[in-house]
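Thread: coenzyme A complex, take 2
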Amino acid sequence: MNPYQNLLISELNGVLTVTINRPEALNALNQQTMRDLANFFRDALPNVAQIKGVIITGAGAKSFVAGADISEFTQLDAQGALEMAQNGQDIFFQIERFPRPVIAAVNGFALGGGCELAMACHLRIAGEKAKFGQPEVNLGIIPGYGGTQRLCQLVGKAKALELMMTADMIGAEEAHRLGLANHVVAAGEEVAKATEIIEKIATKAPLAISKVIECVNANYQDGKDGYQTEISEFASCVRTNDFKEGATAFLEKRKPVFKNL
Ligand code: COA
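Output below.
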């Protein structure tokens, strides 16, 4: 039985695809969907040895996620807003810190919380019809799920300020040019491209992949020194059998067989 009300989950050879399934609302992130995402990543963590990677996409051809669910905003007060933003940021950190690659397959609108969700993923594959934007100022609010921070990290301060202050939407090609999208593919090919990348990453040593994620994240985490994190995690990789196998396989001119040990 699917334990997640608004997510469809499928699995193929260790690649999990999470489809946000509220097409009637362009897959807007209501609180139930946010709980589902939190629960999905919490439940996935103990099984990570069997997971090559996770793809997040949206149901239907039109939208990835068109933002937080605006119909829930009418009951929102300042205290509720604090909790909503804190909770949303915590969930998106769960995604960003997941020790296997998480890729957004952006099949349409990625607006507001949808753009923030895509940015919390490690990579973004944009279908040619994808549209990205942070239109919150149109509603009298600002991004609350980490968008003001991650958009700067990905596209730089000046362009991030422009996008957030004008509320302009940009297409896939511009998102690619700015570094927001890693690749642009034909509509409908987003999940296939994400799968191809996850399969390639799965040929590498899993611990090393998780340490790359951890060290890169450390650069953006308060109280963490990314360079020091890199030194200690470099050493933790060297303690593994996979490191011995990788180095030996190179010298023996054969492909390594990594066992996550
Ligand atoms: N929250 C709740 N419902 C949403 C939604 C959101 N963020 N985005 C779209 N929907 C709903 C619409 O209300 C509409 O529902 P209805 O059929 O019951 O009227 C349905 O999804 C289809 O959207 P619609 O606006 O008719 O489609 P469109 O093709 O004309 O426009 C968008 C598409 C994405 C440009 C437009 O829906 C939009 O601007 N959405 C809000 C984006 C936003 O501001 N996100 C940030 C929120 S903080």
